[in-house]
Design goal:
Two copies of one chain form a homodimer.
Chain A lengths: L4 E6 L6 H15 L3 E7 L1 H8 L9 E5 L10 H7 L4 H11 L4 E4 L3 H12 L13 E3 L4 E5 L9 H19 L5 E5 L10 H12 L4 E6 L11 E3 L2 H26 L3 H20 L8 E3 L5 E4 L6 H16 L2 H13 L1
Helix pairs in contact in A: 1-2, 1-10, 3-5, 4-5, 6-7, 6-11, 8-9
């Protein structure tokens, strides 16, 4: 490992393909001088995109690959069979230690499988949770696990809480982050079996600033910094938030178009509406890390453009420079002992 | 049971107390001539409120009670100990058959406990789910179970689907309602253990129009009519929707106030914003029924005013006249046999 932070990018992943992925990578190298990007993908396509930019050739390396992981096929099969796909090759760079981190806008399922199977979990980590930041009225919270591991156990949720806390403090920059578990009421006795069993573990843990339960209605108001939940519930929170915000804005727009008076008003308030919606623009927040692996694996949206790729790469630099994995290893080992 | 539909109302429940509950009851008797209301509560307080209105004295009966169920104490203890509370007395009217239905804005926990313990479940019904309608872009969907039974089993979710389907068709008036299970992806193989085991039961059931999985992001767009899920997930969906809609409107308002231009626009679009938010005004939709009991138990919001109480009472009339419980009993017996 050099003084550079090396990020292996799946240049072929996502709905927008190499064009946006390559642009994001170039912009990241311009914004941060320690970034070295390995652009894994079809050589002709990637070099064609690169030819449009001036860039530091010492910090962008093309790694030619011949295959692409499909979003429509079984993630497990894709990862097993497509050994020369841009995703698998990029993940292997992390596994081998020739890259610190991996970013892809490709198949979410394949990233989750590939992260665990190719890069592998750190010693003592039982499951690697997906932990995106989500916007709230005051800033952002970390949602962990947002969809990686179905039917997790209480002590696994405790690991998620520790990992999320370290990430939130050191990468997102929230000192002593408030950790809470998603629950249907505030009292300790509330909840389903999983929550009832997890609550005391979180309460007893000295490594985190546990503040108790968080009710879903308080999440958008920023009631806590690290939102701990099982992957099914986390995925519901993530996807419902996206869907509801989009539907509300569509409904407001439709309603505004019903009269001349409101149409004029609509033109005037447009900047305000845009201001609010930009807070919900997930591109601003980089990608969702899969924590607890021997290296950093970051999933960005399938619809990601260059901005999200750029921010995700810069996020990898913070993660690596802050030695997040060393910190996680330390806390998890304490638990294992 | 007479030709009237008799609704036992907990006149002391909720944040707004007897004033709003009594007003709602009076308005319901004026709007529908088959309604007979039993106003259970402190006699002086209820009669004082009633004295402000002209009403048909044959269709409003005061049932004097001396206690009130608290929202702050254990629901089980409250129901067991406060035998002469407005809630327990009203529930007993349903149990004895002297009322068809019960409505309360009191402690949610106590209503859930009291409904199951005092009114009791119908034969073959294992668990009584709470099933409010929630708004979407096209109309409403039924969310079942939204918080009554933690850690339900697959065949219990199948019962929820049947009950919800009957309610949606006959009370809300959606013919052949589309039933879907909340999931984190559309494929049958997706989901946690509960969803994977429930999916085939729903798919095989001939009593419902099962359309597969619904992803949370599609719920606000009205992707299905009956949303089946376990109570923890349902409660997250319900509460997060309420919280997020409120937070977004607050953020838009705050952003609108930042410049003169947007302030003027804000005044002009106000009717449009109000139009959208009225769709999210839960008072419009009556209350949340607890289905599968020997009689109808309806929970309205703690913050309910007369409008919500009135609509909930009218909803009880539809429920009773449509013989929903006979229809549920038939479908559940089919399953048991």
């Amino acid at each position: 490992m050099s003084e550079f932070v090396t990020v292996a990018v799946d240049a072929m992943g996502g709905d927008n393909g190499a064009k946006e992925m390559v642009k994001g990578a170039v912009l990241a190298t311009k914004e941060n001088e320690t970034v070295h990007v390995l652009l894994c993908g079809n050589q002709d396509v990637v070099e064609q995109e690169l030819s449009q930019y001036e860039y530091d050739a010492e910090r962008i390396t093309v790694v030619p690959t011949t295959e692409e992981v499909s979003c429509d096929a079984s993630p497990v099969m894709e990862i097993q069979k497509k050994k020369d796909s841009s995703m698998v090759v990029a993940l292997k760079k992390v596994k081998e230690g020739s890259a610190d981190a991996f970013v892809s806008a490709g198949s979410s399922g394949a990233i989750l499988v590939g992260g665990q199977v190719i890069v592998g979990r750190m010693k003592g980590v039982e499951r690697a949770p997906l932990a995106p930041v989500i916007p709230n009225m005051k800033g952002v919270s970390l949602l962990i696990d947002s969809g990686a591991n179905m039917d997790s156990k209480p002590h696994q949720l405790l690991q998620f809480a520790k990992m999320g806390s370290i990430y939130m403090e050191n990468v997102v920059g929230i000192p002593n982050p408030r950790v809470a578990i998603v629950n249907i009421g505030m009292e300790e006795a509330k909840g389903n079996q999983l929550v009832k069993e997890t609550y005391p573990l979180l309460k007893e843990c000295e490594d985190i600033n546990f503040i108790g339960s968080v009710e879903p209605r308080d999440i958008p108001y920023g009631a806590c910094d690290v939102i701990v939940c099982d992957a099914f519930v986390g995925n519901v929170i993530l996807k419902l938030s996206e869907g509801l915000a989009g539907a509300l804005v569509k409904m407001i727009k439709a309603e505004v178009m019903t009269s001349t008076r409101t149409k004029i008003g609509g033109v005037l308030v447009k900047p305000a509406l845009k201001g609010v919606m930009s807070k919900f623009d997930t591109a601003e927040y980089g990608g969702a890390p899969l924590l607890g692996l021997k290296g950093l694996v970051v999933k960005i949206h399938g619809t990601a453009t260059h901005a999200e790729m750029k921010n995700a790469i810069l996020q990898c630099v913070d993660f690596t420079e802050q030695k997040i994995n060393d910190k996680i290893q330390e806390k998890i080992q304490n638990q294992v002992q």
